[in-house]
Specification:
The protein is an all-alpha fold. It has 7 helices and 2 strands; from the N terminus they run H-E-H-H-H-E-H-H-H. InterPro entries: DUF6628.
Length: about 140
Amino acid sequence: MSELTTTIAALPHALPACPNARIALFTLRRMGAHGLHDARASHALFTAFGEDFRRPLVLMRALMSDLAGTAADTIAIAPCCCARMTAAERALLTVLARVETAPDTARLLLSDLLGVRRVDAVLASMAVVATAFADDGRPICA
C-alpha cells in the first residue's frame, strides 16, 4: 500500500469549511493530545472569543473529560497540523453541529463513537459547548 493510500485510510475526511468547526477541532486536538490545560488551546479560544473565552474553554475542558471518562476505547485524533480529519473527529464535529437540531441522530452517532449505550451526560456536554459557540455568534456547522 502506498503512503498516500495509508494517509487517506487513516484520515478520510477533509478539514471542515466552517471556521467555527475548525476552532473546535483545534481545541479538541490540543486538549486530547496535550491535556485539558493546554495553553495553545486556551489561546485559540481567547483569540476567537475575546473576553468571553472562559465559558467555551471551561465547557470544552468538561467535554473532553466526559469523553475520556465515558469512551469504551480510544478516540482517534490527528495532530494539530494535519490537514485532514479522522473519522472520530468528523463524528465529534457532526455531533456538535447536530446536537440541537437533530438530537436523536447526534445521540446515535455519539453512542457508536464511544462504544457505550448511555451517552446522555456526554451529549449534554456537547450541547453546552455547541450553545457556548452559538451564543457568541460562532455556530458550529458540519
